[in-house]
């Protein structure tokens, strides 16, 4: 069985989060949904993510604090920010970071996810 990369999504809008998860799971990724940065940190501690996908404006802990804290554990963790608010984009966050402004296409999101993951040789049974 192929190893499915773990994508951690921090998004407080349930409809958006569910749609993202369903789409990314259909693309072959293992997805965990959280509603804020605190939940995302808890999940990542138990099951480290290959990529963090985060909104910026969330209750309890927003995206900027989440990115800074999760990267203390894993400085190389790729991050995709999904936001409709350009004023919430962190200005000085080192590392691999992609910003998608809402609304964005799901095909663009998958393209960026694939570009951030290490290349893996896979075989498909057809």
Automatic annotation (TrEMBL):
<keyword id="KW-0597">Phosphoprotein</keyword>
<keyword id="KW-0614">Plasmid</keyword>
<feature type="domain" description="Response regulatory">
    <location>
        <begin position="6"/>
        <end position="117"/>
    </location>
</feature>
<dbReference type="InterPro" id="IPR050595">
    <property type="entry name" value="Bact_response_regulator"/>
</dbReference>
<dbReference type="Pfam" id="PF00072">
    <property type="entry name" value="Response_reg"/>
</dbReference>
<feature type="modified residue" description="4-aspartylphosphate">
    <location>
        <position position="55"/>
    </location>
</feature>
<dbReference type="GO" id="GO:0000160">
    <property type="term" value="P:phosphorelay signal transduction system"/>
</dbReference>
<dbReference type="InterPro" id="IPR001789">
    <property type="entry name" value="Sig_transdc_resp-reg_receiver"/>
</dbReference>
<protein>
    <submittedName>
        <fullName>Response regulator</fullName>
    </submittedName>
</protein>
<dbReference type="InterPro" id="IPR011006">
    <property type="entry name" value="CheY-like_superfamily"/>
</dbReference>
């Amino acid at each position: 069985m192929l190893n499915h990369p773990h994508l951690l999504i921090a998004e407080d809008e349930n409809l958006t989060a569910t749609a993202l998860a369903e789409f990314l799971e259909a693309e072959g990724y293992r997805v965990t949904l959280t509603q804020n940065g605190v939940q995302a940190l808890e999940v990542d501690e138990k099951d480290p993510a290959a990529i963090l996908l985060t909104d910026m404006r969330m209750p309890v802990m927003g995206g900027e604090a989440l990115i800074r804290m999760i990267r203390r554990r894993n400085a190389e963790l790729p991050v995709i920010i999904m936001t409709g608010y350009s004023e919430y984009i962190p200005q000085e966050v080192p590392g691999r970071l992609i910003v998608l402004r809402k609304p964005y296409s799901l095909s663009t999101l998958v393209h960026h996810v694939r570009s951030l993951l290490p290349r893996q040789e896979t075989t498909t049974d057809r």
